[in-house]
User: What shape does this take?
Amino acid sequence: MSSSMGTILKVTTFGESHGQGVGVVVDGCPAGLPLQPADIQVQLDRRRPGQSTLTTPRDEADRVTILSGVENGKTLGSPIALLVANRDARPAEYAALKNVPRPSHADYTYQIKYGRRAFSGGGRSSARETIGRVAAGAIAEKFLFETHGIEIVAWVSAVGTVNAPGVDVLRIIRREVDQTPIRCPVKAATVKMISAVQAAGKAGDSLGGIISCVCRHVPPGLGEPVFDKLEAALAGAMLSIPATKGFEIGSGFSGSRMCGSQHNDLFVKKGGQLGTRTNYSGGVQGGISNGEPIVFQVAFKPPATIGQSQQTADFEGNETTLVAGGRHDPCVVPRAVPIVESMAALVIGDMLLRRQKPLNIP
Amino acid sequence: MSSSMGTILKVTTFGESHGQGVGVVVDGCPAGLPLQPADIQVQLDRRRPGQSTLTTPRDEADRVTILSGVENGKTLGSPIALLVANRDARPAEYAALKNVPRPSHADYTYQIKYGRRAFSGGGRSSARETIGRVAAGAIAEKFLFETHGIEIVAWVSAVGTVNAPGVDVLRIIRREVDQTPIRCPVKAATVKMISAVQAAGKAGDSLGGIISCVCRHVPPGLGEPVFDKLEAALAGAMLSIPATKGFEIGSGFSGSRMCGSQHNDLFVKKGGQLGTRTNYSGGVQGGISNGEPIVFQVAFKPPATIGQSQQTADFEGNETTLVAGGRHDPCVVPRAVPIVESMAALVIGDMLLRRQKPLNIP
Amino acid sequence: MSSSMGTILKVTTFGESHGQGVGVVVDGCPAGLPLQPADIQVQLDRRRPGQSTLTTPRDEADRVTILSGVENGKTLGSPIALLVANRDARPAEYAALKNVPRPSHADYTYQIKYGRRAFSGGGRSSARETIGRVAAGAIAEKFLFETHGIEIVAWVSAVGTVNAPGVDVLRIIRREVDQTPIRCPVKAATVKMISAVQAAGKAGDSLGGIISCVCRHVPPGLGEPVFDKLEAALAGAMLSIPATKGFEIGSGFSGSRMCGSQHNDLFVKKGGQLGTRTNYSGGVQGGISNGEPIVFQVAFKPPATIGQSQQTADFEGNETTLVAGGRHDPCVVPRAVPIVESMAALVIGDMLLRRQKPLNIP
Amino acid sequence: MSSSMGTILKVTTFGESHGQGVGVVVDGCPAGLPLQPADIQVQLDRRRPGQSTLTTPRDEADRVTILSGVENGKTLGSPIALLVANRDARPAEYAALKNVPRPSHADYTYQIKYGRRAFSGGGRSSARETIGRVAAGAIAEKFLFETHGIEIVAWVSAVGTVNAPGVDVLRIIRREVDQTPIRCPVKAATVKMISAVQAAGKAGDSLGGIISCVCRHVPPGLGEPVFDKLEAALAGAMLSIPATKGFEIGSGFSGSRMCGSQHNDLFVKKGGQLGTRTNYSGGVQGGISNGEPIVFQVAFKPPATIGQSQQTADFEGNETTLVAGGRHDPCVVPRAVPIVESMAALVIGDMLLRRQKPLNIP
Assistant: This one.
């Protein structure tokens, strides 16, 4: 298993769904950053279950404890360890799953790879693993904002077949995103989205969706070609989030249908530096940020655990009917918004710390 | 700059477009693999410019030399260094670009990041950098095929607005892909695609496209959750290829519009092991291969360098009209097919070597 | 700060001397290893303060809690997080050190590097950081013993000017090492060593020493030339332990005074495989284990914190007399024995998991 | 095999003793560094064989070619690939070694690990592998000197039993080191050393030795505790050099025999900052440079390949008498001087680029 990411800003998550707790170690954060538990808690609260009727009823306060790395409200430069206890674990509910791998879930592949799997709740493949990411991401966000004014905002831009285009990436803020529990800032779409999620939940079904994200005020020059291009690092980070199936930056797949004379972002003077008239590039060129907003989208599949019975096979290959227990979200995208923001913050934070200035030697 | 990828199978590329040459060092390939220059050359020939009327007229034979790591036709276990000389470099053609960054190209971001850029041909952001990837990928492919019978086949599934659905991922082979220079195996689409590329070329314009890829016979159990999930590593690898804007695995973005009861891949006995009836997952569950074919798509933008004049700004911000010289492809996807295959081979090869067997201790 | 080591078996420690606690995340340990807290506690008990009159009176039970990665007494393959609470922290005792960096301690360099330092107890440079190493090492040791019968034994071979040569590296076991609190198995030397430590303690002074270590039954073939040679990885691991000043493997520095005809380890048949008559190589040749016992030594300086007053300078450069408070060991080598064993286990465990078998393809 | 080192300044060497050539890729060197082949050649010339009667008669000019990463005499920020061709390879001379592993050489362990070994000249375990290190180190040295005035000087401080103490680490320069082919700046010792080497050579024997090294003007604050402490990185780098058996920094093993009141380096004002009166620490405290000269020593064993016949065993375990052919140095330390300097430069260069400044946020 590989639970670490980052070159200078290194993040290591740990914890299973129904063990003692989940957490993260953030190593490489510069010393001197003001940091309080509340800076982290605010994003954990946006991720936690039970926050609205749209999410799993599993009730976890998800209170974070800072174990190390901070003294007198400032980071020491040493590893920051964060712990969130598991409280509302109900392993008994998963008894039915002992012999039958849930379709499109990680039960089968974990069993094959590790010769066992955590007995309940998905273990390490559970969404609870993302608590560590969000906690770490909150620290990275604070670092990015305090040192460079970088703002990262994600939102739900599609739920099932309901799309919500038209968000102004230059102005969207989290308060607007959080106005409804579906975390879509386009009012016209929210009612339809919420109805769709509720209908899926009642039918014992689930829905996928898309999250869009913008990172503003990212200085030009971030990203490490050729293999650690900024968009490559973002793509890898996003596809490491559970349930993701796709990533696109800037024009993305629709850009593949355009011709160059349309797609090229022509340069123009903006304030003291060069900017571009359009932003089909999504804020990156050649793997390096160009100073324009970084804009990308992430596709999430419908959750694999559904209430409906499924005609599938047990581990031995015998046909069986599975009726899954446990408590699950009919649609994960509202709670995944802070996860996407956090992964973006971790990638950009690492790139900022990896950047080297060119020399000026005659 | 970060020109290395991989944890056990480590690949380091080097070289600029118009320097002495380009190449790669492949470290971590197991000893004992039969390897001849021809094993590598075959994929370089599919990538090289000038191979058809659809590609840049820059004429490079791109002959590979094995500098180290192979003796008596077998790998030694030591780093395999490969070199391809640059021959048809014409730096003079790029003189016009000295003061004007090409829109949507890496000229501006390299200048900002490195305080300079290779004077001609895009330097390190040139497509010639991918020679090292293809050469390394050919070695990885040989390793995967000889040890596990793994087959990797990519093809062009869209050029601009011309789509080519319906390819049978279980049967498609490279010979079918290579029947036309556009590298699309769907005959009905190839004529339209070729016409579109030729029309774009004549108009001094360029076209994007999509490449699809299947990896067959990948054993279950590959991928390292949580941050190095197989799909995350593939996404990162693909988005590190020049001109890419998107990645999706299995159902991808269209999966986000489905509900769980449709999307779940129900298990069924296949031969001696579990398989799935459908493959919306694209061969991965929870970040780990499940034994089904790994299927993904990569979106490429239209090349930034076009013959048409563009109203843009120079480095100082002054408005100017750019007419780019140099020799370029109107559409890169046919030549990018072996690049996608190679990056897939490098990711899967590394995951295969990173895999640890579970212990069986009472 | 860089608190992680290892390529496949990755270890990340966290925690300051006087914060909430210290701990470690061990990622990459194969699934299926039987593991109980007692497997870890036994080594922590050998490391903990207050275990004898020779060590610091700081009283810490150092009880370990397994937060994740283990279920039903077996490892899951997921990250194993371990936590040890700090209990007997007395930050007040360090007030005198606020303005004066302790000579030969990390106070000054931490202040320069991080712009601050943990206020008390040395923070991250404290010996308490090694708790995470020992806890992780105990897991690695269990893995090495259960899968390959590998035994690692370290002992004190010198305290100050008292040497204890003549230990039989083929037979020495931990029970013999632990017969006296000085952890030297050579009876003739122990009385002198203990007296020397007690005398130094009474004089407000401190003593250095040397730890020797043997790793038996390490299979041939471990180590990754050229930069991750087994001896290079061991050297780096040992010199990362606080207070270490030197490392030598096999003949070490004395080998530099020999000629080749003496020093060469001639091959001889041993059981079914090749062994060597002598072992000046210390179990490695060309960076790779050769099947002979791996034997090395680590030099520790006398602890920097002493009771005697010292004529030094404060952070501003003003001359001052420092009388350090706090509770400290007059000689660290007895407690460092399990640390050396643990670092050896982590290095060998990682090399075992990194090893690739050569292919056998005609 | 693992042929890469470094986190930001990444170095990857390649090449066997008797293949086409040896070389290195240096990635992560900042853009804008003035660099000519002569900057590199000067150190290669100090390493090359045949430079004096004390070294192997193998005659290699070892001319370096810069393949990439430099344009108009300045680094581009992209990977710098360097190649040195092998010319005077004589594989035939090694025929006798086919069935008999040379004692204390890597023949046996390579055969075990890789299932084969390069047929002649030691392949990857040959001293020729260090050409890449020296070439890369020369670039790092230039970077360190141009940006921080850092000077690195190594010298031979012992050959066999002949010691040469008393070198002034504050003043020693390379010109003094190079005054004799033995590379020892202590005149009184050089004659004895040279005689000893010549006698060993005539006797078909070999001699070990010790190299000392000082790095001056290293700014305080370099090194990444806890696992990548500066001394840990140096120890790992030095023990990765072929034929090394030991490393010590500052007081080293002799420091283990001292008491703290002697060993502690008391602070004193030096110019505008704190320095220490003594330097038993060797320029590091807590794993971080303190601004004092970094001083360390490396022990080299006598070369394993000797002219005398040896009673050993072949690969099958049969007793045999080995008389090795090939051309070898009776003592490697004179030629290893630039290797030690280079490894030090690579470690310090990487640490300089990894360093993060603390934040100053109220």
Remarks:
- The first strand of chain A starts at residue 4 and ends at 5.
